[in-house]
Amino acid sequence: MKKYLIVALATLALSGCISTQQEQQEQQQPQTPPPTTAPITTVPPIGTPETSGQPPVETIPQPPKLQSIDWSATVQPLVAKMLKADGVQSGSVLLLDNVKNSTNGSLQTGKITDAMHTALASNNTFTVVPASQLASAKQAMGLSADDNLVSRSKAIALARQVNAQYVLYSDASGNVKSPTLDMQLMTVQTGEIVWSGSGAVQNQQ
Question: Domain 69-203 sits in which CATH superfamily?
Answer without folding.
Answer: ABC-type transport auxiliary lipoprotein component (3.40.50.10610)
